[in-house]
């Protein structure tokens, strides 16, 4: 098991990288009135067949064709379900995959969301040939990071340049703090 | 909220700056295992520490990248160092503190930190 939800997100988002996605959209929404934390990872990668989708949620189905997925998806599913939430994976061959995990916010068995700043910063700076959109919402406050916006401004300047990399981390950190407020997520 | 204006200023500052990385090429490759096994055992802060340190110390001949499962899950987090003309060095059970030592001793001074290599634990 992963110690925090943000590590599950990093792990499952790596599957989108391996699926050859050009755009990965990550959404994290905490809704206190509804007592729900929803995580959506959506990509436009190579997708999976119906049979593959069924097998990736089974940790003991480990043939070579699904080895790339391994325990990542079962861990994420287990984390969501042990908090009383739910898990769903939908995929279409050549179209992409959408993974949705819902957690009950007040469950004692829900892991903390953890360091989403590091997860998103790692994904964005380590995969410069792809685009990411990260939406983070807590009740009515939200912010979005869109690498396409960064790229438009930066042109050919790399995300790994120290000034740019630090800017991206600060952008994530400051906006995350502002959106989270005093909530415990 | 942090604005995109700040990013524009960074872009302007960097325009015309010589990109040393492209000219020198990346002589040393540092690879962190970032599959489920690596991430679960703490590879994310190791990767962040390495890429930050390499940037801060301006080691323009070093490229930090990530890979999938290396096949030695019980030794994760694993960091591999590839240097042209030398044998690959595999560091195991890494953490951010050990990673900084590898930057100072191996990447900068060229001495393998043998106590953290797989040979030392096997």
Overview of the structural elements:
The complex is a heterodimer of chains A (185) and B (122). Chain A has 185 residues and is α+β, with helices and mostly antiparallel strands. Chain A has one domain: 2-Layer Sandwich (Heat Shock Protein 90), CATH 3.30.565. In chain A, 38% of the residues lie in helices and 25% in strands. Chain A is built from six helices and six strands, in the order H-E-E-H-H-E-E-H-E-E-H-H. Chain A has helices spanning 5-18, 50-56, 72-82, 116-126, 147-154, 162-180, and strands spanning 23-31, 36-43, 86-92, 96-104, 131-138, 141-146. Chain A is globular and about 45 Å long. The two termini of chain A are 19 Å apart. In chain A, 40% of the residues are buried. With 122 residues, chain B is of the alpha+beta class. Chain B has a single domain, classed as 3-Layer(aba) Sandwich (Glutaredoxin). Helices cover 42% and strands 16% of the residues of chain B. Chain B has helices at 5-14, 20-24, 36-40, 43-56, 96-108, 118-121; strands spanning 28-33, 62-67, 79-82, 89-91. Chain B has a four-stranded mixed beta sheet with strand order 2-1-3-4. In chain B, strand 3 and strand 4 (89-91) form a beta hairpin. The radius of gyration of chain B is 16 Å and the shape is globular. The mean pLDDT of chain B is 89. Chains A and B meet through helix 1, helix 4, helix 5 and helix 6 of A and helix 1, helix 3 and helix 4 of B.
